[in-house]
Write a structure and sequence with these properties.
InterPro entries: TspO/MBR-related_sf, TspO_MBR. Belongs to the TspO/BZRP family. The protein is mainly α. The chain is about 80% helix and about 0% strand. It is globular and about 50 Å long. The termini are far apart.
């Protein structure tokens, strides 16, 4: 099967573009700065580069699955995790609903893990591209939970 690299560019551009747009629209402000945070909270500058890299990996993984099976379970999980991913910042930073954001990120983590499991049967590389994402979201879930408990 010949790969369509134009669709790869579209996947990366859309995922990165929407992710960065949501990030800019829901920038942490005074409210976030005033929250009690756990000792393992990274400095704010870490989040932008981390998410940029992750969004590129997410885009590549989605493209790989799209090229194999556009309507299969892995693609449906990929779309679901994108929806959950894009809902988290508006819930946490926009609505300032730490508990709601915790529910969203927990569901996101479960969906990422499900994607890895399902995608591994069709494309091991797509599944592997999600491993750093799963690690980051697991960390972010612990961070979100800690902020919720502290505040």
């Amino acid at each position: 099967m010949q790969k369509n690299y134009l669709s790869l560019a579209v996947f990366i551009a859309v995922v990165l573009g929407i992710g960065l747009l949501i990030g800019f629209v829901t920038l942490p402000g005074e409210w976030y700065a005033s929250l009690q945070k756990p000792a393992f909270n990274p400095p704010n500058w870490v989040f932008g580069p981390a998410w940029t890299i992750l969004y590129i990996l997410i885009g590549i993984a989605g493209w790989r699955i799209w090229e194999i099976d556009r309507y299969g379970g892995a693609m449906k999980l990929w779309l679901l995790q994108m929806a959950l991913n894009f809902c988290w910042s508006p819930a946490f930073f926009g609505a300032q609903r730490i508990g709601l954001a915790l529910v969203i990120i927990f569901l996101l983590l479960l969906t990422i893990l499900a994607f890895i499991g399902v995608a591994a049967r069709r494309d091991k590389m797509a599944a592997l591209l999600f491993v750093p994402y799963a690690g980051w979201v697991a960390f972010a879930t612990a961070l979100n939970a800690s902020i919720w408990m502290l505040n």
